Amino acid sequence: MRSKAIMAAALTVAAALALGACSSPAADSGDDKEIVLWHMEGTPNRVAAFEAMADKYNETDPEYTVTVQVQDWDQVYSKIAAAAQSGKQPDILFAIPDFATYVRGIGLGQPVTDVVDALDEEYGLIDAAKAPYLDEDDYWAVPLYGMVQMLWYRADMLAAAGIEPPQTWSELRAAAEALTTDGTSGIALPAGKNLATDQVLYSLMITGGAADFFTEDGEVNLDTPETVAAFDLYKELLKFSPTDSASYAWGEPQAAFNSGAAAMSIEKGQYLAPFAEESGQDPSQLGCAPIPVADQGGEPGSIYYSNGAMVLSDDEAKEAAAGEFLSWLIEPENYGDFLNAEPGLFLPVTTDGANLEQWRSNETVSTYATCVDAMLEQSASGELFGFVDGQYIDSIGEISGQNFLAQAIQQMYVNGMSAEEAAAWAQEQMQMAIS
Amino acid sequence: MTTVATARQTRKRGAKGRGLAAVPRIVSMVVLTVLVLGPLYWVTISAFKGREEIIRSVPTFWPETFTLSNFEQLFTSTEYPVFLTNSLIVGVATTIVTVVISLAAAYGLYRLKVPGSGKIAGIVLLSYMIPGTLLIVPLYRTLSGLGLIDSYAGLVLVNVAFTAPFCTWLLRGFILAVPRDIDEAAAIDGAGPTRTMLQIVLPLLVPGIATVSVYAFVFSWTEFVFASQFIVSDSLQTLPIGLSAIIGQYTVNWGLVMAGTLFTLLPTVVLFIFVGRYFVGGLIAGATK
Fold this sequence. Notes:
The complex is a heterodimer. Chain A is α/β, with parallel strands linked by helices. Chain A has helices at residues 2-23, 44-58, 73-85, 97-105, 113-123, 127-130, 155-161, 169-179, 195-207, 225-238, 251-259, 275-279, 316-330, 332-339, 357-360, 363-367, 369-380, 396-401, 404-413, 419-434; strands at residues 34-39, 65-70, 92-95, 134-135, 138-139, 142-148, 150-154, 264-267, 286-289, 302-311, 382-383. In chain B, helix 7 runs antiparallel to helix 10, helix 7 packs parallel to helix 13 (254-288) and helix 12 packs antiparallel against helix 13. Chain B is mainly alpha-helical. Chain B folds into two domains: 18-67, no CATH class; 73-288, MetI-like (MetI-like fold), CATH 1.10.3720. Chain B has helices at residues 2-46, 51-54, 69-76, 80-110, 117-128, 136-145, 152-177, 181-188, 193-201, 206-222, 225-230, 239-247, 254-288. The termini of chain B are far apart. At the A-B interface, helix 1, helix 2, strand 2, helix 3 and helix 11 of A face helix 4, helix 6, helix 7, helix 11 and helix 12 of B.
């Protein structure tokens, strides 16, 4: 009797859940007075900050309210394509330059030149942030925040070894070797097939004079002595990186660095916020320096990601409303809070933004002010593959999406290719991908 | 006396021989246990460590500073409870619909004399072998046309499309194991096909139903690709998507990830504790009959 009662109760609960599944309304209401925004910043603090910004904007009683929806970077390529085919795309889509070319390639995206020009005139947008979105005399995304890489080092470990922060490739290699001891790696580098590896390698390619690997005709020109030198350096440095580097992306080198298992790393400003808590060290022990440059023919620089927002809606009123919201985000009274969604990682794209009190007074930004200033300075010489010196390679998404640079690293690290062979291999793969 | 001593020696040698023979079995069991439970143990203890301890280069095998902060953060600063509820709703709905459909299909294909049932059964199983990722765009268009994008119902429908074919095949062994004489006896007593199925055969298929229920629930619980494509709103996201977002790009809060993983594992572990024996037995029965 009792078992029958339990069975009945279980069936009732199950039926209620199943009915709930069938009766749940679609969340995308299609409200005409709503702007749907997709972003890919899924970590809890960023989600909360972006939602807070949307709420704050909606409190100003705009004609169109903003609804924020979080997507996953790994899935958004196929998701936006499927959504586009069904006419279900969002009105605003956060993007990086190579993703923007992909989105345009599937027939989405409206020019936002008026918005960008107005923001540029009022607040001064830095070139590295806006240039990657310029094509055919129009801007295709409104730059919102930048990210740049630095050489991070454990000041305590370098001081103990009597080593100065490296400024050149040879110094970097020597430092990595000297800092490698039993149980400690000189440097932690990613070597997985992922964007993290692409990015670190590209920073070294920039400082080795190999930033531009396309011809004027848009053909791949990767197999050059400069690229080979950068590949060779990476291969050398991996000897002083933890042995499981082949599975590393973003999180693992940072964990190795903060735990003291590695003395140096090359990454963006996400290293600031968790350093003291995870390492147990004083914040002063987190050192930062520009990416070391090649001993000969090198130039300062780093990969620079301009994160922007594309307007996808082709409804004129919604287009205008989307532009208004994006401009509102950049306004000085809002922009600091927006950047504080990930303090230290999100850098201002306006020249005025660097002095915003809201941003500067953030605990992470103020604690690591020296490194923040160094990143802002590094931003000025930032580059991104496919967009160097005014380039706009339509098919760059095919290359970045398949992580050919990272694959080349794996060819060296896992399969034992030489730098020359890996560069030739990557050149061939990239050319095939865009042909 | 000599005979007794000889017998003792023989028994000792036999016991020693059996003991030695058991060594490879015990070693392989220990190795397998460590391989299977090791990561689970690591996730569990890491969830109770602080951020500094969790990434320490010399790992601790037991938390030095036992903390619940990761769980607190998981439930207060993320939408984890929402993801959990969504996964439960989708999982239970997928399970119920899968059981109903696959049971009806299996009964029709393997019990009733339906013309061409053998070929139909083959085609049903074939559909299970199509990689789901190839179907994302057409499925998206179909669901969009039905107004089911970004809804529980759409996700349940897709999940069932992938669980029902395998579950139908899985039930084959159980249905074939029920003697047909029972049907004939029921018919003599005046029971129609529906009554025979529901009141006579169905109670004998409980282990099979438990097996497909577990399979369908676990499939839905761990399903990532379709949930990531067909659910857009944060309020409808399921656990795998929510966990993926917690891992995030550029930064990883390992404690949060471990706590989230632990809570994601729990329901399936509990499910297997209660009905795992049916599942294993059911898979063997389905595969061999």
